[in-house]
Amino acid sequence: MRVGLCLVPRVSLITGGVRSGKSAYAVKLAAERPGMRRAYVATGEASDEEMAARIARHKAERPPDFVTVEEPVNVASALDALNGRADIVIIDSLTVWVANLMRIYSGEDAFCHEARTLVQVMEQAPFDSIVVTDEVGSGIVPDNAVARHFRDLLGLANQRIARSATEVFLMVAGLPLRVK
Fold first, then answer.
1. Is residue 113 flagged as an active site residue?
2. pTM of the model
3. CA-wise closest residue to 169 among 25, 61, 62
4. DSSP characters for 64-117?
5. Which residue ranges form the domains of the chain, and what is each CATH number?
6. Sequence-ordered list of residues with C-beta below 8 angstroms from that of 23, at least 6 positions apart, any chain
7. Helix (H, G, I), strand (E, B) or coil at 151
8. Is residue 179 within 8 Å of residue 170, measured between CB atoms?
9. What is the block-wise mean pLDDT of the chain (180 residues), using blocks of 10 residues?
10. What is the enclosing helix (H) or strand (E) of 141?
11. From the candidates 58, 82, 92, 150, which is the catalytic residue?
């Protein structure tokens, strides 16, 4: 997007349920812009066989021209390191990033600082960002405090990024619905 003579980075947020097509849509959006240097910041870690299989599937579905950066916690730093090396970056996923942060931080203040920093870096980056996240607040209230805390932190992070985003999509059964 152009504002005056400055190029302002576009931030896109893609949310939805599990297996709703969020990651595939993010890759499609990035691929629709020919001639761009593409990067993929992956927040997942292969902590068990199921997660290793998910990561392998995502890698196999990604076009070969994407530079992949695996960073489970320091996503803002990973984005800073991509300055001058990428024109469009997919962050997949905010959901896993929040879960990773919960292993490190117990208080909401530290988490909110991390989320604010991520938004600031995306807003100031010389590249566009596509953020993939899950919509976890639409279901039942979790029966334990840890799950409720996770749901709340992810909801706050989703809101913060959605406010700064140029566009927001909700994926439903593989179909994107533009929210913003």
1. no
2. 0.92
3. 25
4. TTEEEEE-SS-HHHHHHHTTTT-SEEEEE-HHHHHHHHHHH--SHHHHHHHHHH
5. 10-178 (3.40.50.300)
6. 58, 61, 90, 92, 93, 132
7. helix
8. yes
9. 54 95 96 92 94 89 92 97 97 96 88 94 96 91 92 95 97 96
10. none
11. 58
